[in-house]
Design brief:
The protein is an alpha/beta fold and 344 residues long. Helix content is 33%, strand content 22%. The chain has helices spanning 22-30, 68-77, 108-115, 131-134, 153-165, 184-193, 206-213, 238-247, 260-269, 299-302, 317-343; strands spanning 11-15, 34-38, 56-61, 81-85, 92-97, 119-122, 138-141, 144-145, 148-149, 169-174, 198-201, 227-231, 250-254, 277-282, 290-295, 310-314.
Length: 344
């Protein structure tokens, strides 16, 4: 659970064994409470002492039915009771898609997994700035940047597996979706090979959400009935350029600033119209979000100074966004004129 009251200096009694109560204990300690633990319903203290009258009693749902009398006594005495989930009996790994970086685009499943984690290995494109408000887990930065991998992919997989084998609930938090250029398949395979239980919680992929943040739909009736998602980390081959140019629809390129010149030139050589509209959306849903719009023939010049993280959108849907934007601006101008006339 997420704590929303000030517990600084307050006595909190947490029920349950050391293993089942570990996450609840950590949450309340981080919140500034003086935490005591009651090991059994028979009243055995977990740390040799108990508060005379706790401010709050946190009952961990560890499957032990004997805590009910304690709950009833607390209610009779006017002591608030909070119910806490117990961590799983064995360590496991959860790959979590964190979306494009906006806290409100985290799924409910992602929030629940973070709440119950013992350790979180997070990427730089995940919403890591807010993690302290979402989890009491140990936070480990394993983010990779182009040309700078502070922790290699294989080492990340090793860290995840080792933590799970120690009995910890591990969350691997990624930007976007784990299975969309997130190497989630490799990490699942590493867990399976080590006999570690693993599951995947899908995230909102930046391939759709970041264009939306700029007002660009990746599909639009009578304009585009399909879209293709491409990784921009490495240049495409001439054959791939030809296939892309011939598909039609919308092309979405993730992290494609470094290969933008090769992509634009390759698509032109493959026969795509140089007048095809193109957008570069930088830092979607983050401070400093910016959209640069040009066409395939001039985008290299227009995008000078653009940087990753960025999503490239190529297709007629970019004109749809421009038309909607122009319409909104015209409507706003008419409203201002009407207001000034009424005031006159």
């Amino acid at each position: 659970m997420q704590l929303t009251i000030d517990l600084t200096g307050r006595d909190v009694l947490v029920t349950g064994s050391e293993k089942s109560a570990r996450q609840a204990i950590r949450r309340y300690q981080i919140a500034g409470a003086h935490v005591y633990r009651l090991s059994t319903p028979e009243g055995v203290p977990g740390d040799g002492q108990l508060p005379e009258r706790p401010f709050l009693v946190a009952v961990v749902d560890d499957g032990e039915a004997g805590w009910l009398p304690l709950v009833e006594r607390c209610r009779d005495a006017g002591i608030p009771v909070a119910f806490e989930p117990a961590p799983g009996a064995e360590g496991h790994v959860t790959l979590v898609g964190g979306g494009p970086g906006a806290l409100d685009l985290l799924t409910v499943g992602a929030v629940d997994a973070l709440r119950d984690a013992d350790v979180v290995f997070y990427d730089r494109l995940a919403p890591y700035q807010e993690l302290a408000d979402l989890t009491s887990a140990d936070l480990v930065d394993v983010g990779k940047q182009p040309g700078l991998h502070k922790v290699t992919q294989r080492d990340i997989e090793k860290l995840m597996v080792e933590a799970a084998l120690l009995g910890k609930n591990v969350v691997r938090l990624k930007g976007g979706d784990p299975y969309v250029f997130g190497r989630g398949g490799e990490e699942v395979a590493a867990c399976v090979a080590a006999g570690v239980p693993v599951r995947v919680i899908s995230g909102v992929t930046s391939a759709i959400s970041v264009p939306a943040a700029a007002g660009i739909p990746v599909t639009h009736r009578e304009v585009s009935h399909m879209f293709t998602v491409v990784s921009g980390h490495a240049p495409l081959t001439e054959k791939e350029h030809t296939h892309l140019a011939g598909l039609g629809g919308t092309i979405v390129v993730l992290m494609g600033i470094g290969t933008l010149p090769q992509l634009a030139a390759g698509l032109r050589r493959a026969g795509m119209n140089p007048d095809m509209p193109m957008a570069v959306v930088e830092r979607g849903y983050r401070p400093g979000q910016r959209t640069t719009i040009a066409d395939l023939g001039t985008i290299e010049t227009a995008a000078t100074g653009c940087s990753n993280p960025a999503v490239l959108v190529i297709g007629e849907v970019v004109r749809v966004a421009e038309a909607n934007r122009n319409h909104a601006e015209a409507s706003a101008e008419l409203s201002r004129l009407a207001a000034s006339l009424l005031e006159a």
